[in-house]
Design brief:
Helix content: 40-55%
Largest sheet: 8 strands, mixed
Protein name: Bifunctional salicylyl-CoA 5-hydroxylase/oxidoreductase
Organism: Bradyrhizobium vignae
Strand content: 15-25%
Length: 783
């Protein structure tokens, strides 16, 4: 077997080592365009988990790597004159040059042929090779040569960064957020060997321009950074090595394999430096390929196993990197935060670390986070304990005169179980049980303002007396038996109306019994959907009046809050999105015009809804489609509604067009809530694959939302919030007297259960290499 590897970086070398170990008789050769000891950049960083993987797959190279590493447990966040150190992280750094030399030495031991200063531009040189590995880096010429096949997507990010080094010693992975006369600069720094540390400097393009960095050479740039961060460098120099300012390219390739060629490392996909995973991904690519080669009956099968099996893990890491880099690109959103809350945001930015696991790692730090959050609550007028505060989820919140006992919300979820718009006993049990279960606020499903406003025949409505009486019964039950507040969500289906029940085919048109549908423009949702009638001015007035009439009925029912549904491609949302609004009149074109009718409806509702009661609006903060609404648009939309009197923006996304391509994941819509809250300066509620109280605490403590809505967790567990209250010791959680014995028991049990789980997690967690090294170097106790 003959294997040719183009690129002598960590991916290529480690793949050569593993494949040669696996097949000692194979002819494995690495071709590198640079010299053997050339390297660009300074250090690389790995987690303990990554080192565990290296130990498993090649012990000799693992041992040599770990002998050279600098270890640390802490992350230090410097911000506005404060330093917050967070332990228990388990990181280690190594010189990139040293890593390459170790891998080269190990490859030679195994009989791998290493050829340097050989520039390969055409794979035909390896016509006799059974396998060709393309590991030629982020600027891969082979990926570009076969661009139509590999189909890479390159997202060049906005921030400027430069990679430098220093002789400044560091005992933690260090983030420095530095305010300057030109704007914010960020330093990501860590020690990789005695007397040497890596420094990555980052800033937004506007600050870069204002600071006069355009056109400076390496030495001049280093001098400027030394001036800005001199107070921390403490006389140590900054070192350069091709340290030019550039923009980071996020690369994703649709295909990784072509014939017997396969992409590895940055050649196939890149991950932003802010999560330190570039070299990790490259070497783990090599591991995945070697494992596939060992299992598969042929090279062709092995390459498919590699691509199919490896892609999910790579994309998960890239998603975490995307979320992290966006946080750094928009750090100005958080610049006015309390420093401890800011540091918590740094730690949890990629969603890989959450409130609970951070509390296990750094309990004192999280205790300060809780106190900071409680001080903010106290400053808003609540008499809460700031010395021994409750977790963020169980801190109160106010919207106008409505006070919520906690920040857990049951999300609006259509039940499709009404009869001619009338809520039934199912709805009474559904809403009543969730209210008793402890949520601070529960939302009705989208309640339709007229018969032709329904999504399906099973949708609830509020356009007649029978419906009003049914809703009043539900509201009265909630108020009489719980501490929950209840919000009425009003909406109109628009072009997504006259469709089947969810379980019969979501958004699919009714085969019979349908009704005429309306939209901003005559564009059907599916090609075979009913073509909606473009709403004219008379139709707009009729719709507005229907909303007003429903709101007046809602007030008579006793609802505590009112929400206007302007999301998910329904009627009002169809005006806002340019994908569904192609009008040429005053209600089409620019965003200001597209917002005109939704704002008219909102203002009419605000005029009849009692001033002491709050109102919210649900928006789709992105259409997840080219040419549609973006996060920046969502900020403009939120500001417009805030000026009209909205108290809360319910931030959802998508469902506007059928060919949208959402990027799912844990808490996947939270970044949009974050952007709206911290740029539009309006309270937000986030929603979207939030499944645990831990995640809710993470979001709230980081200042990414003010309320957290959970949908599916509430579907299967009406007492989700009560259980969370017991887990976190929120003893003041309301419980009806009939259920108090159950509350007492779960609160007692949860103290023990939580303690047992935390002890188990602590025992199960292996010591970090920094801890082991510290123990090994302790002086022996005197006998």
């Amino acid at each position: 077997m003959k294997v040719a590897i183009i690129g002598g970086g960590p991916a290529g070398l480690y793949a050569a080592i593993l494949l040669k170990k696996q097949r000692p008789s194979a002819d494995v050769a690495v071709y590198e365009r640079n010299r053997a000891d050339d390297t660009f950049g300074f250090g690389v960083v790995f987690s303990d988990a990554t080192l565990d993987n290296f130990e498993k797959h090649d012990l000799p190279s693992y041992r040599r790597i770990t002998e050279e590493f600098a270890y640390w447990d802490d992350i230090a966040v410097h911000f506005r004159g404060t330093v917050h150190r967070v332990g228990g992280n388990g990181f280690c750094g190594c010189s990139r040059r040293k890593l390459l030399l170790i891998l080269q030495e190990r490859a030679r031991e195994l009989g791998v042929a290493l050829q340097f200063e050989v520039d390969i531009g055409d794979e035909s040189r390896f016509a006799d090779a059974d396998l060709i590995l393309i590991a030629d880096g982020i600027n891969s010429r082979f990926r570009e040569k076969y661009v139509d096949h590999f189909q890479p997507e390159v997202d060049v990010r906005s921030n400027k960064f430069a990679w430098m080094g220093s002789t400044r010693p560091l005992d933690a992975f260090t983030f420095i957020f530095q305010e300057t006369e030109w704007g914010p600069f960020i330093a990501h720094a860590y020690q990789y060997e005695a007397g040497h540390s890596t420094w990555i400097f980052e800033t937004d393009p506007e600050t870069f321009e204002r600071a006069g960095l355009t056109g400076l050479d390496e030495a001049q740039s280093a001098a400027r950074m030394a001036d800005i961060f001199g107070w921390f460098l403490n006389g140590h120099k900054l070192l350069t090595n091709r340290s030019m300012w550039r923009n980071f390219p996020m690369i994703r390739s649709k295909r990784w394999v072509k014939d017997n060629m396969v992409l590895l490392g940055d050649a196939k996909a890149s991950a932003h430096f802010s999560i330190g995973s570039g070299t990790k991904l490259a070497m783990e690519d090599a591991i995945a390929l070697a494992e596939a080669m060992e299992r598969a009956p042929s090279i062709e099968a092995a390459l498919q196993i590699y691509e199919n099996g490896r892609r999910e893990e790579v994309e998960k890491t890239q998603h975490a990197a995307d979320v992290s880099l966006v946080w750094f690109e928009h750090v100005d959103r958080f610049w006015n935060f309390d420093p401890v809350q800011f540091a918590f945001g740094v730690m949890t930015r990629s969603k890989a670390i959450t409130y609970d696991n951070l509390k296990l790692r750094a309990p004192d730090f999280v205790a300060e986070v809780d106190k900071s959050f409680a001080r903010q609550v106290r400053s808003s007028g609540f008499d809460v304990d700031t010395d021994r505060p409750m977790v963020p989820l169980f801190q109160p919140f106010r919207l106008r005169e409505m006070k919520l006992a906690n920040r857990a919300v049951m999300s609006p979820m259509c039940m499709y179980s009404a009869r001619e718009g009338v809520p039934t006993d199912f709805h009474l049990v559904h809403y009543g049980s969730r209210a008793i279960g402890g949520a601070g606020l529960i939302f009705t499903e989208m309640t339709c303002v007229s018969r032709d406003a329904r999504i399906t025949p099973g949708c609830a409505g509020l356009w007649n007396d029978e419906q009003e009486a049914a809703w009043r019964r539900i509201v009265d039950f909630v108020h009489a038996n719980s501490a929950a507040k209840i919000c009425l969500q009003l909406g109109h289906a628009g072009r997504k109306g006259a469709t089947r029940l969810m379980w019969d085919g979501m958004d699919r048109p009714l085969e019979q019994g349908g009704w005429e549908v309306f939209s901003a423009s005559p564009l059907p949702y599916f090609p075979d959907s009913q073509v909606p009638r473009e709403l004219d001015r008379a139709g707009m007035r009729a719709v507005r009046d229907a909303f007003v009439a429903a709101a007046e009925r809602g007030e008579r029912c006793g609802f505590d809050m009112l929400e206007l549904h302007c999301a998910h491609g329904y009627l009002l949302a169809s005006f806002i999105s340019p994908l569904t609004n192609t009008r040429t009149d005053e209600y089409g074109g620019a965003l200001e015009n597209r917002l005109r009718f939704p704002l008219e409806v909102f203002e009419a509702l605000r005029a009849v809804w009692p001033l002491h009661k709050p109102m919210s609006v649900r928006i789709s903060a992105t259409d997840w489609a080219d040419g549609g609404i973006t996060g920046d648009d969502a900020v403009a939309v939120a500001r417009a509604f805030a000026e009209a009197g909205v108290d809360l923006v319910d931030v959802s996304t998508g469902q506007t067009v059928r060919d949208a391509q959402p990027v799912y994941g844990r808490m996947f819509q939270t970044p949009f809530s974050d952007q709206v809250r911290n740029e539009a300066r309006v309270a937000t509620m986030c929603v979207g694959n939030i499944t645990t109280a831990d995640q809710a605490n993470t979001i709230l403590a980081a200042g990414r939302a003010d309320l957290v809505a959970l949908g599916r967790p509430h579907l299967v567990d009406p007492f989700f919030t009560m259980k969370a209250a017991a887990w976190y010791g929120a003893n003041d959680a309301f419980c009806p007297p009939q259920y108090l014995p159950g509350k007492d028991q779960i609160f007692r049990n949860s103290v023990r259960d939580r303690q047992d789980l935390e002890e188990l997690r602590i025992k199960a967690k292996p010591k970090t290499r920094a801890e082991l090294k510290a123990e090994a170097t302790k002086p022996l106790a005197a006998e």
